[in-house]
Design brief:
With 313 residues, the chain is an alpha+beta fold. Helix content is 40%, strand content 25%. Helix 9 (273-282) runs antiparallel to helix 10 (290-311). The protein is globular, with a radius of gyration of 20 Å. 34% of the residues are buried.
Length: 313
């Protein structure tokens, strides 16, 4: 039996339901395929949960996804499928340790571990003591935040706390929470992008300690074969953050990122005008809306993808 409490084929089916319930309760649509769950990320854009390398739905799966209501499918694929250059960051080395880190980051992580301790924490603890870290992180990343955004994250954590697939890790300076992450286990992978830290304690580099210890402990579990950050961020893909991931021993799996358009609306995108006008319209709202940023990024990718398709024989 693994740490989630699932040990049989029946329990594996239950795990699919738990994850589907989480996304649904969060307001995302879900489509279940034999190869794994796909979930909406807004604007009826769907992407797969599993992110460990290139993939491509079968014709039957495409049909299921279109019938399920998706308008756009975003997924990592191979170079021959005419997408844009992209990548996934993950760790799949069972022997991941300090030697896996790049030179200077190894030194900084050792220093961080002298000031911080890292441990599994109850997600309810993070709800009670960690919401100010959410606001701090948004401010540091120059992202728009208001009470509605904070309440959305609180709801996210509340649902995670009720779900047996999810777990939290915290890095502490003394007794003060300096950074935390929340992830979930799914089909051999450890996934999630809930990473926040406290600005007053940044000098202790608690994120180094948090990333290192949690990754090392999780990848050693027999039921886990990869710890993944997923495909590159649709927007706000900061080079500095990517350099940090690589320096922390996360390998960069190069893929092509593909967006397919539902057959019923694909003719509208044949000339590129929809993307051009769409970017012009949603660009007015990107400063205060992550949803607008995501839609803008969609149009941007589709424009680039269209140019690539036209240039290849």
């Amino acid at each position: 039996m693994d740490h989630t409490g699932f040990s049989t084929r029946e329990d594996s089916t239950l795990a699919e339901k738990h994850l589907s319930d989480f996304f649904t309760q969060l307001g995302c649509q879900v489509i279940q395929l034999e190869s794994g769950l796909w979930h909406s990320i807004g604007f009826r854009i769907y992407q797969p949960v599993i992110m460990k390398g290139p993939s491509k739905p079968s014709e039957l799966e495409f049909e299921t996804l279109w019938k399920g209501g998706s308008l756009f499918l975003r997924y990592p694929t191979t170079i021959d499928h005419r997408g844009i250059s992209s990548y996934i960051y993950l760790v799949d080395d069972k022997n991941y340790d300090l030697d896996s880190l790049h030179g200077n980051q190894r030194k900084e992580t050792r220093r961080s571990l002298r000031h911080c301790h890292v441990e599994r924490v109850e997600i309810n603890y993070l709800i009670k003591h960690g919401m100010d870290l959410v606001a701090d992180t948004y401010l540091r990343q120059h992202r728009y935040s208001d009470p509605q955004v904070i309440n959305w994250w609180k709801r996210n954590l509340e649902l995670s706390a009720e779900n047996p697939l999810f777990e939290g890790w915290g890095a502490f300076v003394g007794t003060e929470l300096a950074a935390f992450r929340v992830d979930y286990t799914y089909r051999g992978g450890f996934y999630g992008d809930v990473l926040f830290n406290r600005k007053e304690l940044l000098k202790y580099q608690a994120m180094n300690a948090l990333m290192f210890v949690s990754t090392r402990e999780v990848i050693r579990r027999p039921e886990i074969d990869h710890v993944s950050y997923g495909i590159r961020a649709a927007f706000g893909d900061a080079p500095s953050l990517n350099r940090f991931k690589e320096s922390m021993g996360y390998k960069k799996v190069e893929v092509e990122e593909r967006i397919d358009i539902a057959p019923k609306i694909k003719p509208f995108f044949s000339t590129g005008l929809v993307c051009k006008w769409g970017k012009r319209f949603v660009g007015k709202f990107t400063e205060k809306s992550d949803k607008a940023k995501r839609i803008y990024a969609l149009f941007d990718i589709l424009e680039e993808q269209r140019m690539i398709e036209r240039s290849r024989p």
